[in-house]
Amino acid sequence: MKKTKIAFFDAKDYDKQSFMDSDIKGEFDVTYLETRLTSDTVKLAEGADAVCIFVNDDINKDVIDELVKMGVKLIALRCAGYNNVDIEYAYGRIHIVRVPAYSPYAVAEHAMALLLTSIRRIHKAYIRTRDFNFSLSGMTGFDLHGKTVGVIGTGKIGRIFIDICRGFGMNVIANDKFPAKDSGIEYVSLDELWQRSDIISLHCPLTDENFHMINAKSMEKMKKGVVIINTSRGGLIDSEALVEGIKARKIGAACLDVYEEESDVFFHDYSNHIVNDDTLARLISMPNVIVTSHQAFLTKEALTNIADTTYDNIRSFFADDKCPNEVCYKCDKAGKCPQAHEKKCF
Ligand code: NAI
After folding, report:
1. Is residue 346 part of a domain?
2. Is the same domain home to 114 and 203?
3. 272 and 175 in a common domain
4. Are 186 and 215 in the same domain?
């Protein structure tokens, strides 16, 4: 049987391991490429049936045209978010599938790990005690119990994060474009969420509509000392405004797993380089900012699910003519879950 050829972009050692460990790998002929898929590298997909991509590959109109010209039929995202793909332009030209859920627990738990690390100064304590400095000066945190957390986006990850917060005895308020019915969640307007929250955690996708939803204006409405957690997409926060908000002591702490200009630096080792991004450098230099390198998803369970679902998506598309995890611009616009259908969108 002819194997389906996959050009696998932005491949890291942990990606390769999980894809090579998958039980269904035998049906595919995978070429692992370290480079990202961009207009400059798209030619490397020549001869492939599908490309497999991640969060920072740049699938613009040119890349889509080139893929179509080369006969590539499918873009398989091995992640949930798809803001890096021009889905509107792709409609009718090339199909796109994603992994809608691989481990919402991984991301929600990472959000809580960042929050606890930040407010209990664990990152500081770790460094101090390794240097036999047992002083507690400057280490005062605050209880989560009784605090109000504002959750934006109450989908798979947001709902799990809410459950975790409730376990800590926190009051939860939320905002979602499509509030979940009968969920017992107290939905409020964004303005009310900014005003009432001690902690704000972002769990919505990045769209044109909510780009920079946390900006100078929304920060003005927030409580002094608010903690902001972003494990969703960097573009949800205006980073320069965040720096100013922290300098003005309005923002008490920021926990960032994502950053709007992350594609230039994240996932690479720049420890021996001068990083040119002054905003990122300023954020990292602040004692109340924690940055992780888009690692919220990175658990064994998530990697296994990503590999299995990606292979399943590609197999369904080519062998069974089905596309249950298709990302379609029309479904997206209508606000309906793209996973609600089995057949291809066009
Ligand atoms: P989901 O699709 O289950 O939930 C997203 C929720 O956001 C939905 O309820 C939707 O109605 C809501 N929403 C959409 N637009 C909104 C807006 N403008 N304002 C408020 N709510 C809005 O998605 P899931 O699986 O919970 O993932 C959420 C996000 O987490 C993803 O879009 C992705 O950007 C990010 N993510 C980050 C990872 C990481 O490693 N840091 C890994 C996986 C996902």
Report:
1. no
2. yes
3. yes
4. yes
Structural domain including 91 reads 4-102+299-332
* Predicted confidence pLDDT, tens digits, the chain (346 residues): 789 999 999 999 999 999 999 988 888 999 999 999 999 999 999 999 999 999 999 999 999 999 999 999 999 999 988 999 999 999 999 999 999 889 999 999 999 999 999 999 999 999 999 999 999 999 999 999 999 999 999 999 999 999 999 999 999 999 999 999 988 999 999 999 999 999 999 999 999 999 999 999 999 999 999 999 999 999 999 999 999 999 999 999 999 999 999 988 999 899 999 999 999 999 999 999 999 999 999 999 999 999 999 999 999 999 888 888 998 877 766 555 545 667 788 8
Q: Are 274 and 319 in a shared domain?
A: no
In a domain, 328, yes or no: yes
Residue with CA nearest ligand 1 atom 35: 232
- Residue 209 in any domain: the answer is yes
Contact assessment for residue 222 and residue 190, using Cβ atoms and an 8 Å cutoff: no
- The CATH number of whichever domain residue 259 belongs to comes to 3.40.50.720
Q: Is any ligand 1 atom within 6 A of the Cβ of residue 232?
A: yes
123 is catalytic: no
Please indicate, yes or no, if residue 224 is contained in any of the structural domains.
yes
**Sequence-ordered list of residues with C-beta below 8 angstroms from that of 333, at least 6 positions apart, any chain:** none
Quick check: CB of 178 below 6 Å from ligand 1? yes
Phi and psi at 194, nearest 5°, equal -60, -45
CA–centroid distance, 181 to ligand 1, in Å, is 17
Number of domains making up the chain: 2
Q: Are 38 and 81 in contact (CB under 8 A)?
A: no
Nearest Cα residue to 37 out of 92, 94, 84: 84
Tell me whether residue 262 is one of the annotated catalytic residues. Answer: yes
Q: How far apart are CA 189 and CA 316, in angstroms?
A: 40
Residue from 203, 233, 260, 326 carrying the catalytic annotation: 233
Q: Is there a catalytic annotation at residue 294?
A: yes
